[in-house]
Amino acid sequence: xxxxxxxxxxxxxxxxxxxxxxxxxxxxxxxxxxxxxxxxxxxxxxxxxxxxxxxxxxxxxxxxxxxxxxxxxxxxxxxxxxxxxxxxxxxxxxxxxxxxxxxxxxxxxxx
Length: 111
Prior knowledge:
The structure is a single chain. The protein is an alpha/beta fold. It has helices at 47-53, 60-71, 75-86, 102-110; strands at residues 2-6, 17-20, 38-39, 89-93. The chain is globular, with a radius of gyration of 13 Å. It starts with a strand and ends with a helix.
């Protein structure tokens, strides 16, 4: 099972391994309050792609296509595939709109 959740949501026993997949530290979250197993910055979209997208739902389909192309053949993707093979995996992001988030694209790619 692979799912995407907001980093601010409480962990649940069914989450399995929890991995933050944002490039930037989540706003308002203290480092001692971080509740995940790993921060995999390299799984996040490039700064250029993130800036171009700007969380505009009208650009989401193109964003997802470009993001998948960026991820192809990366060590981060291989790492996440390994985690997914071991058991439940929860991809965490600070983005409010999970439907149009990179974590959702990544979960779909891994699933």
